[in-house]
Amino acid sequence: MAKDTTPKTVSFVLPFFNEQGNVGKFFEHLLAVLTTLNAYRFELILVDDGSEDATLRELRRLCQSFPAEGPITAHLVSFTRNFGKEIAMTAGLDISSGDAVVIMDTDLQHPPESIPAFLAQWETGEKLVIGQRTNRKTDTLLYRFFAETFHSLHNRLSNLNLPRGTGDFRLVDRQIVSQLVTLRERQRFLRGLFAWLGYEPCIVQYEVQSRHRGRSSYNHWRSWNLALEGITSFSTVPIRLWTYLGLVVSIAGFGYGFYVVILTLLYGAKTPGYASLMSLVLLIGGLNLIGLGMMGEYIGRIHAEVKDRPIYVIETHETF
């Protein structure tokens, strides 16, 4: 039987949000790497996540510069509004058709120069290759603490393992992509979904680079919401903890009440302690509100799922 000489296709899922200042430099680095990989064809899926600057115009200009008969096919997708990075990556995965898919940020913190190492591992049979940071020099101390705390909590509270120092930078085999795109939940945490599928990751280390220009749109508030999404999407332990906490507080309350009754019967004395009583009331009231908030997080996710709205809305989809 003749050997199939058709080159493999590698898709790239590239989300953009207000990256006008980084588009040119990012593609300069990416294309410099791709031109050295002559054994492959490439499919670039550029997802503009409702940018408010000239990102879409810059992307269109770059796509129009690709040779018609070259090894690169580009899809330029524009959302009607900002749906978020997780949704932008989901749309890219839905559209992708390559034998493998690379997901990476487009601010140059994920170095395109690491792509050959990813492909080398894939060619040996690895189906999930994940980039692992060797440093966090571009992050603040607060963000480092937050990231470490999130990974510890997520891995303890769920039955999934997110390797430390990893993010969205990864190469995924078509087999995994085909399975992941069948998971259509609205509240999405892709790193968790990839881990849920159960494939053993292969780790490739890389050094985080500084953003070429501008500041990340992924601020501490968005990071907090993503972490909350990740934990509540894959674990019911937080809400179960409130059951145990409620049991402990109830037992303590009954015990204190029994103590007051016995003290009154034995000594006929009024029990002093207005300040301590108010402290207990405020403590229990605060715990109740936190518990209600935790329940609200889960109920809100159920509400979002049962509405069954589309995950994203595409305004334009151009092919070059």
Q: What form results from the Cα inertia axes?
A: elongated
DSSP summary: helix tally: 10
Largest sheet: 8 strands, mixed
Overall helicity: 40-55%
Mean pLDDT: 85
Strand order of the largest sheet: 7-5-6-4-1-2-3-8
Radius of gyration: 25 Å
Uncertain residue segments:
none
Layout of secondary structure:
Blueprint lengths: L7 E9 L6 H12 L5 E9 L6 H10 L7 E8 L5 H11 L4 E4 L11 H9 L4 E6 L7 H17 L8 E8 H7 L9 H8 L4 E5 L13 H15 L2 H31 L6 H33 L7 E6 L1
Parallel strand pairs: 1-2, 1-4, 2-3, 5-7
Antiparallel strand pairs: 3-8, 4-6, 5-6
Helix pairs in contact: 5-8, 9-10
Give structural notes.
The structure is a single chain. Strands 7-5-6-4-1-2-3-8 form an eight-stranded mixed beta sheet, sandwiched between helices. By secondary structure, the chain is an alpha/beta fold. Strand 2, helix 2 and strand 3 form a beta-alpha-beta unit. The chain has two domains: 9-235 and 311-319, Spore Coat Polysaccharide Biosynthesis Protein SpsA, Chain A; 237-306. The longest helix has 33 residues, at 274-306. Helix content is 48%, strand content 17%. Helix 5 (141-157) packs parallel to helix 8 and helix 9 runs antiparallel to helix 10.
Give descriptors for this structure.
320 residues, alpha/beta, Spore Coat Polysaccharide Biosynthesis Protein SpsA, Chain A, 2 domains, eight-stranded mixed sheet, 10 helices, elongated
